[in-house]
C-alpha cells in the first residue's frame, strides 16, 4: 500500500515539503524598535495579519509602500516590497510574488544598509525555493542569514536557519544539524514563541532523520523532544501566528508513535491526530488535514478495521467537497486509499466506483501540476532575465562613475597643462638653456631604459621558451616512451593485434595531446581530464592493470574553466612510479583525483591520493638516487611564476593520514584563467 508516501511524506521528506509550503513564514514580524522605521513597523504589522485577515494585510502593506514612496526612502521601499512578496507567496500569486521580490532585490543594489539588503535576499531566496531552484535559494538565504546576524536580529536568524536546514536535507546531514542547532540558539536569544516553535520543528526534523538507523533510546529522545515542542505550542498558541506549525508538531509526534515499539501507544497516536485535524479545519490548512486523515486511515487499514478507515477517507472527501475550492490532489489521494481499502475487503463494485473518481481527479491533478511546472519555468526565465538586466545596469552605473572620474582627471590634467604652459612661456627665456640640457639628459635616460627593457624582454622570452621545452620533455619521459613502445612490440610479436592497436592509438593520442597542449597558454579542465585519463590508461596497460583510478569533480566545478596545461600529469607519474609500482602485488593500487573550486580565490584545487608505499618508504628506496624529478621542479617553477597574479598557486605533498590508509596525498592549487 502506497498511502503514506503519497499522502504525507514522513521524516525528512514530510518536514521538507511542509517547509517549502510554509517557507514564507520565516519572515518574523518583530523588528528591533531602535532600527525599524514607522513605515517598516506598519508593513510588519500588516504581514502579521496574513492568516487572520488577508484584505487588511494587503491594505496595510500597500499603505506602507505608499508612505515609503512619498518619503522617497529606498530602504523602506525595499522592506515593503519584501513583505508584499512574501504575502503574495502566502496567496500563491506567483506573478506578483516574482515582481515584488525582483523589485526588492533590484533596489537593494542602491543601498549599503544591512536590514534592507537582508530583507531583499530573504524575498529572493523564498522565490527561488518556491520555483524549485534549491542552490540559488540556499545562496540567497545564507546571505540574508549573515546580514540579519550582523544586525543581531535573532528572531529572523532563527527562522531562516531553520529553513536552510530543510533545504540541505537530505543531501547534507551535517549541515542540516548545524543550521538546526543555530536556529535553536537564535530562537533562545529572541525569546518569542513563534521563533522557538519554528526552530524546534527544524531540530526535530534532524532527530527524526536519524531514526532510520537509530536505536530505541534515540526514538524515546525524539518523542520526548516533540512532546516538549507540542507543550510549547499549546502554551503559546494565541501568540503563534503560523498556526500550521502547531499542526505540524502534532503530526510529527503522531508519526513518531506510529514508528515506535509495538504495540504502539494508540491513545496518544489518535489524540495527536485529532488535535492536528482540529487545527487544520479551524485554519483551513490542507496539508495538515491531509496528513492527519491519512495517518489515521492508514493505521486502521493496517489494523484491519476497514470500515473505520473507509469512514475516515469518506469524511475527508466530504469535507473537501464542502469547501469553496477543489483540491484535486487531495481528492485523488483519498479515492486511491479507498480503492486500496475496497480491494482488501474484496468489494470490487466499490473498487470500480472509487477508481472512476480517482482517474477523474488524478487527471485534474496532473493538469494542475503541469500548469504549475510551466508557470514556474516562465518565472525562472523572467527572473533570470531581470537579474541579468540588474547586473547590466550595475555595470553601466559603474562605468558612468568611472567616466566621471576620468573626466575629472582629464580636466585636472588639462588645467595643470595650461598652468605649466603659462609658466613655461613666462620663464622660457631664463631657463631655456637649462631646459634643453635637461631634455637631452632625459632622452638619453629614456633610450637607456628602452634598451634595458628590450634586453629584459628577450631574457624573459628565452626563459619562457626554455621552460616550455623542459615542460615538453618532462611530459614525454623517455623511460615511459621506451616502455610503451616495448609493450607495443611485445604485443605485436605475440600476435595480440587488437590490444596492440588500442595501445598504439592511446599512445599516439597522448603524444598528440601533449604536443598540442604544450603550445597553448590555457586549456579547459575537460581537456586536462581527457589527457589524464589517456595517460593513466596507458600506465594501466603498461603495468598489467595492477591499479585502478577515479576522477571526480565537485558539483561547483565547471569543466570548461580554463587552467594552465600539463600541470597535473607529473604528479600522477610520481604516484605510479614511486608509490604504486613498488607496492606489493597483493594490494590493488588506486589513484584518486578530486577537483573542487574556490570561485572567490579563482582557484581550482586538485587533490591526488594514492595507496602506494608512501613518502617515507619511497625516500628509503631512493636513498642513493640523487635524481630530482624534472617535471616536479618545472611545475614548481611554473606555479611560482603564477603567484604574482594568484598568491594561492602552489602544491603540497603529504603523507596520508594513517586512519585514511597508506599512501601519499598531493594538494595542487591551480589558478583559473
UniProtKB/TrEMBL annotation:
GO molecular function: phosphorelay sensor kinase activity
Domain Signal transduction histidine kinase internal region: 468-546
Bilayer-spanning residue ranges: 405-426
GO cellular component: membrane
Keyword Transmembrane: yes
SUPFAM superfamilies: ATPase domain of HSP90 chaperone/DNA topoisomerase II/histidine kinase (SSF55874)
Signal peptide: 1-33
This protein's UniProt keywords: Kinase, Membrane, Signal, Transferase, Transmembrane, Transmembrane helix
InterPro entries noted in UniProt: Bact_2-comp_sensor_kinase, HATPase_C_sf, Sig_transdc_His_kin_internal
Full protein name: Sensor histidine kinase
Species name: Flavobacterium hydrophilum
UniProt lineage: Bacteria, Pseudomonadati, Bacteroidota, Flavobacteriia, Flavobacteriales
Amino acid at each position: 500500500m502506497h498511502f503514506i508516501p503519497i499522502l504525507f511524506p514522513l521524516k525528512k521528506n514530510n518536514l521538507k515539503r511542509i517547509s517549502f509550503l510554509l517557507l514564507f513564514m520565516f519572515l518574523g514580524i518583530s523588528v528591533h524598535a531602535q532600527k525599524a522605521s514607522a513605515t517598516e513597523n506598519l508593513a510588519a504589522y500588516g504581514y502579521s495579519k496574513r492568516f487572520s485577515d488577508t484584505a487588511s494585510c494587503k491594505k496595510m502593506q500597500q499603505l506602507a509602500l505608499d508612505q515609503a514612496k512619498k518619503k522617497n526612502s529606498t530602504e523602506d521601499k525595499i522592506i515593503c516590497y519584501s513583505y508584499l512578496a512574501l504575502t503574495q507567496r502566502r496567496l500563491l500569486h506567483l506573478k506578483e510574488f516574482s515582481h515584488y521580490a525582483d523589485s526588492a532585490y533590484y533596489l537593494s543594489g542602491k543601498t549599503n544598509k544591512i536590514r534592507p539588503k537582508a530583507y531583499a535576499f530573504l524575498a529572493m531566496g523564498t522565490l527561488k525555493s518556491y520555483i524549485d531552484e534549491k542552490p540559488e535559494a540556499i545562496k540567497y538565504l545564507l546571505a540574508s542569514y549573515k546580514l540579519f546576524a550582523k544586525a543581531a536580529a535573532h528572531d529572523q536568524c532563527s527562522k531562516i536557519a531553520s529553513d536552510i536546514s530543510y533545504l540541505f536535507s537530505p543531501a547534507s546531514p551535517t549541515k542540516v544539524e548545524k543550521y538546526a542547532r543555530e536556529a535553536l540558539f537564535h530562537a533562545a536569544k529572541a525569546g518569542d514563541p513563534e521563533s522557538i516553535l519554528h526552530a524546534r520543528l527544524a531540530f526535530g526534523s534532524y532527530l527524526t532523520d536519524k531514526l532510520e538507523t537509530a536505536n530505541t533510546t534515540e526514538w524515546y529522545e525524539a518523542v520526548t523532544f516533540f512532546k516538549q515542542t507540542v507543550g510549547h505550542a499549546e502554551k503559546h498558541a494565541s501568540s503563534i501566528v503560523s498556526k500550521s506549525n502547531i499542526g505540524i508538531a502534532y503530526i510529527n509526534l503522531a508519526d513518531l508513535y506510529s514508528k515506535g515499539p509495538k504495540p504502539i501507544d494508540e491513545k496518544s497516536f489518535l489524540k495527536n491526530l485529532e488535535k492536528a485535524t482540529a487545527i487544520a479545519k479551524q485554519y483551513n490548512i490542507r496539508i495538515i488535514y491531509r496528513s492527519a486523515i491519512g495517518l489515521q486511515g492508514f493505521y486502521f487499514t493496517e489494523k484491519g478495521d476497514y470500515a473505520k478507515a473507509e469512514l475516515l477517507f469518506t469524511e475527508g472527501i466530504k469535507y473537501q467537497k464542502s469547501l469553496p475550492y477543489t483540491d484535486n490532489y487531495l481528492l485523488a489521494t483519498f479515492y486511491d486509499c479507498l480503492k486500496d481499502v475496497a480491494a482488501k475487503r474484496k468489494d470490487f463494485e466499490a473498487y470500480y466506483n472509487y477508481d472512476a473518481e480517482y482517474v477523474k481527479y488524478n487527471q485534474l491533478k496532473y493538469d494542475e501540476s503541469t500548469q504549475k511546472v510551466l508557470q514556474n519555468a516562465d518565472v525562472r526565465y523572467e527572473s533570470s532575465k531581470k537579474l541579468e538586466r540588474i547586473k547590466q545596469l550595475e555595470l553601466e552605473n559603474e562605468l558612468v562613475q568611472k567616466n566621471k572620474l576620468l573626466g575629472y582627471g582629464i580636466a585636472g590634467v588639462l588645467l595643470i597643462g595650461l598652468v605649466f604652459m603659462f609658466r613655461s612661456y613666462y620663464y622660457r627665456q631664463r631657463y631655456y638653456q637649462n631646459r634643453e640640457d635637461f631634455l637631452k639628459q632625459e632622452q638619453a635616460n629614456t633610450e637607456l631604459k628602452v634598451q634595458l627593457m628590450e634586453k629584459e624582454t628577450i631574457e624573459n622570452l628565452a626563459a619562457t621558451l626554455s621552460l616550455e621545452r623542459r615542460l615538453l620533455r618532462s611530459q614525454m619521459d623517455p623511460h615511459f616512451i621506451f616502455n610503451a613502445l616495448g609493450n607495443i612490440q611485445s604485443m605485436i610479436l605475440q600476435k595480440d593485434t587488437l590490444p596492440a592497436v588500442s595501445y598504439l592509438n592511446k599512445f599516439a593520442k597522448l603524444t598528440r595531446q601533449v604536443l598540442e597542449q604544450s603550445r597553448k597558454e590555457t586549456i579547459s579542465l575537460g581537456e586536462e581530464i581527457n589527457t589524464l585519463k589517456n595517460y593513466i590508461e596507458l600506465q594501466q596497460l603498461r603495468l598489467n592493470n595492477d591499479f585502478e583510478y577515479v576522477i571526480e569533480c565537485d558539483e561547483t566545478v565547471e569543466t570548461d574553466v580554463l587552467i594552465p596545461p600539463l600541470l597535473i600529469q607529473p604528479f600522477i607519474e610520481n604516484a605510479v612510479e614511486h608509490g604504486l609500482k613498488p607496492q606489493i602485488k597483493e594490494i590493488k593500487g588506486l589513484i584518486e583525483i578530486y577537483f573542487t573550486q574556490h570561485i572567490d580565490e579563482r582557484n581550482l584545487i586538485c587533490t591526488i591520493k594514492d595507496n602506494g608505499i608512501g613518502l617515507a618508504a619511497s625516500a628509503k628506496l631512493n636513498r642513493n638516487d640523487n635524481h630530482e624529478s624534472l617535471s616536479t621542479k618545472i611545475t614548481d617553477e611554473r606555479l611560482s611564476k603564477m603567484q604574482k597574479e594568484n598568491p594561492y598557486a602552489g602544491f603540497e605533498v603529504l603523507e596520508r593520514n594513517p586512519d585514511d590508509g597508506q599512501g601519499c596525498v598531493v594538494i595542487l592549487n591551480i589558478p583559473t584563467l
